[in-house]
Task: structure prediction
Amino acid sequence: MTAYLHGRPPLVFDPSADAIQTSPLIPGSARLEDVAFGAATSVTVLAPPGSLERSYVLALALQALEIGGRLDVMAPKDKGGSRLAKELAAFGVTGEATSKAHHKRIQAVRPDALIGIEAALEAGGPQYSPALEAWTQPGIFAWDRVDPGSALLIEHLPALSGRGADLGCGFGVLSRAVLTSEAVTGLTLIDLDRRAIEAARRNISDPRARFEWADLRALTADGMLDFVVSNPPFHLAGEESRSLGQSFVRQAAAMLKTGGVAWIVANRHLPYEAELKTAFKRVRVVEEGGGYKLFEAIK
Result:
């Protein structure tokens, strides 16, 4: 029996402790894309909120299941749960629908024939965007556009030098701008999302770049970097989390040597200034507009 798990469902759903984790947001997880067709006896999925991403994950799960294998999928009612039954029906799958802990849950078995799997895999999978001139994928932060905060940072970013890091790199928009400076000797791109790291690898072939799929909050900082750039995330599990961005500020400071500089952009309503002033020696607001603030902070 080979069981797979995608995400971290609430414990009230009794996810199997022995299942192989496949979430791209949990560093070290296996790839559901790599599971051989029909190799899984069961797949449990906490479905993501985005429709393209959710259909992609459901298609992967159904593809991985053996005929007659069990699919157990749930999502918050207001983040895709109410659409699960319809979306599965479009794949030719019907099952028992229940409600629990503000989630909708569908338990079904994999039928002999599936409908529309290829289209869902194409729409939700890695894809090249001519407009962005980059590889990207639904589910990555700002996957189909340059986030306005990142655009503001790029507009005002000076030519940096030495070794640095892009914290929460996404598919590599900021890193591409950083690497236009020949004085940069090394850049580490870090992101919690495996898909972002995979896309960034395809988008950046510069030998000065290295890539790390990791939870920034769990990394040990050595205080040896010359610069950091970041457009910190402020959502965790679909909910706004101010502490997440604040942890990015603290980690940026810990990664920098004395005199190192952090360029950080954030939504104007987020309370990062006190955290910046605690962690850094000098902080200035470089630009403010479009609902964002851009900070330069010197350690």
User: Anything to note?
Assistant: The mean pLDDT is 94.
